[in-house]
C-alpha cells in the first residue's frame, strides 16, 4: 500500500484571483458532497483555503479535480494519513478573505510577502542569536507547541496581530524576523504587513509547521510540543527527533498536550486537561461549570462512543476500498 492508513487529511491554500467566488463555492460544495469528502474550504476573490478528509481514493480524486482548474494547477497539498474522517460534515463558504485579517491597507501576497525559507534554511536560522522568532498563530495554539525561542503572541485572532506588532516590536525593525504558522497561509499576509510597517528582513517558514515536520532532513527538529489543528484530532505530533510535552494540565499542572472543551455549553472553554482530571472535573474548566445543571459530560461521552463506532466502520470501509484499489493496480 502507498499509505499506511486508509484515510488522509489534505491541507492547502493559494492566493489567486477568483472572480466567481460565490458560484465556485456552490459548485465545489456539491462536488465534495457527491464524492464523500468532509472538511472546511473557504473561497474568496483572493483565493482558496481548505482542509478536507477522505479515503485515499477520494483524496486522490479531489486533488486531481481541484488542480484541473488552471488557477489552482500548482496548489501544494500537505497530506496526513489518518484512520478515519476527522470532520463530521463538509462546508464550503464564500468569504471576503480566506484568512480574516481586515488590514487597514490590504496586502496582496503575490506582490508583497516575506522571503520563504525551506525547512533546512529555517532550522539553521532558528539557531542564530540575532533573530526574532514570531509564532503567527493564536495564543492557545502556541501553548501546546511552538518552536524553541519563539515569542508567544497575546492574541486570539489574526485581526489582533497588527496592534500586537506595533506595541511590542516597533523598536526592532532592523532585526531579522522569522515567522511561522500551521500550514503557511497566515504568514503570507502577516509577513507582507510587516514589510509595509518598515521591517527590513522578514522571513517565513515555507509550508508551515506541517511541511517542516515531514521534511526528511529536519524531521521537525527544534519544535517543542504538538501542533494544534482545526479538526477532531485537535493536535498532531511534529518533532520526530526529540518529542516533548510542554503544555500543562489546567487543573493539576501535570505535563499534558491534550485540549478538551468545557462540558458546560454556556462556557465551552477549550483548555489543556489530563485524562485523570477530565474524569474528576467532568471535563469542566471550573467547579462552577462542573456543577452546572446543563453540563454535557455524560451526554457527550455517549455521543463520543457512537462516533467511535462510526469511525470503526469507516476505517473498515476505507481499508476495504484501499485493498480493492491495490488489487486493481496489481492486476493492471
Automatic annotation (TrEMBL):
<dbReference type="InterPro" id="IPR001763">
    <property type="entry name" value="Rhodanese-like_dom"/>
</dbReference>
<dbReference type="InterPro" id="IPR020936">
    <property type="entry name" value="TrhO"/>
</dbReference>
<dbReference type="InterPro" id="IPR036873">
    <property type="entry name" value="Rhodanese-like_dom_sf"/>
</dbReference>
<feature type="domain" description="Rhodanese">
    <location>
        <begin position="127"/>
        <end position="221"/>
    </location>
</feature>
<dbReference type="Pfam" id="PF00581">
    <property type="entry name" value="Rhodanese"/>
</dbReference>
<dbReference type="Pfam" id="PF17773">
    <property type="entry name" value="UPF0176_N"/>
</dbReference>
<keyword id="KW-0819">tRNA processing</keyword>
<dbReference type="Pfam" id="PF12368">
    <property type="entry name" value="Rhodanese_C"/>
</dbReference>
<dbReference type="GO" id="GO:0016705">
    <property type="term" value="F:oxidoreductase activity, acting on paired donors, with incorporation or reduction of molecular oxygen"/>
</dbReference>
<dbReference type="InterPro" id="IPR040503">
    <property type="entry name" value="TRHO_N"/>
</dbReference>
<dbReference type="InterPro" id="IPR022111">
    <property type="entry name" value="Rhodanese_C"/>
</dbReference>
<dbReference type="GO" id="GO:0006400">
    <property type="term" value="P:tRNA modification"/>
</dbReference>
<keyword id="KW-0560">Oxidoreductase</keyword>
<comment type="similarity">
    <text>Belongs to the TrhO family.</text>
</comment>
<comment type="function">
    <text>Catalyzes oxygen-dependent 5-hydroxyuridine (ho5U) modification at position 34 in tRNAs.</text>
</comment>
<protein>
    <recommendedName>
        <fullName>tRNA uridine(34) hydroxylase</fullName>
        <ecNumber>1.14.-.-</ecNumber>
    </recommendedName>
</protein>
Amino acid at each position: 500500500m502507498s499509505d499506511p492508513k486508509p484515510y488522509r487529511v489534505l491541507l492547502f491554500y493559494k492566493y489567486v484571483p477568483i472572480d466567481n467566488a460565490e458560484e465556485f463555492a456552490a459548485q465545489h460544495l456539491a462536488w465534495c458532497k457527491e464524492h464523500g469528502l468532509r472538511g472546511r474550504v473557504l473561497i474568496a476573490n483572493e483565493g482558496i483555503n481548505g482542509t478536507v478528509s477522505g479515503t485515499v481514493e477520494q483524496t486522490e480524486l479531489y486533488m486531481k479535480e481541484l488542480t484541473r482548474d488552471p488557477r489552482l494547477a500548482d496548489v501544494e497539498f500537505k497530506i496526513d494519513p489518518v484512520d478515519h474522517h476527522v470532520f463530521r460534515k463538509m462546508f464550503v463558504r464564500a468569504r471576503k478573505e480566506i484568512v480574516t485579517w481586515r488590514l487597514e491597507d490590504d496586502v496582496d501576497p503575490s506582490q508583497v510577502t516575506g522571503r520563504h525559507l525551506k525547512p533546512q534554511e529555517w532550522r539553521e536560522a532558528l539557531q542564530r542569536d540575532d533573530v526574532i522568532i514570531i509564532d503567527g498563530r493564536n495564543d492557545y495554539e502556541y501553548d501546546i507547541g511552538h518552536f524553541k525561542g519563539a515569542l508567544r503572541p497575546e492574541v486570539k485572532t489574526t485581526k489582533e496581530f497588527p496592534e500586537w506588532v506595533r506595541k511590542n516590536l516597533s523598536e526592532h525593525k532592523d532585526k531579522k524576523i522569522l515567522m511561522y504558522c500551521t500550514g503557511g497561509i497566515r504568514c503570507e499576509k502577516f509577513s507582507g504587513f510587516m514589510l509595509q510597517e518598515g521591517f527590513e528582513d522578514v522571513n517565513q517558514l515555507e509550508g508551515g509547521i506541517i511541511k517542516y515536520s515531514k521534511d526528511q532532513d529536519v524531521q521537525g527538529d527544534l519544535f517543542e510540543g504538538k501542533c494544534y489543528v482545526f479538526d477532531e484530532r485537535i493536535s498532531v505530533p511534529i518533532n520526530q527527533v526529540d518529542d516533548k510535552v510542554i503544555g500543562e494540565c489546567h487543573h493539576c499542572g501535570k505535563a499534558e498536550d491534550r485540549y478538551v472543551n468545557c462540558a458546560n455549553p454556556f462556557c465551552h472553554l477549550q483548555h489543556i486537561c489530563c485524562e485523570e482530571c477530565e474524569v474528576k472535573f467532568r471535563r469542566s474548566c471550573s467547579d462552577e461549570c462542573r456543577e452546572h445543571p446543563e453540563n454535557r459530560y455524560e451526554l457527550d461521552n455517549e455521543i463520543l462512543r457512537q462516533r467511535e463506532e462510526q469511525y470503526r466502520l469507516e476505517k473498515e470501509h476505507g481499508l476495504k476500498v484501499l485493498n480493492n484499489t491495490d488489487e486493481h493496480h496489481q492486476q493492471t
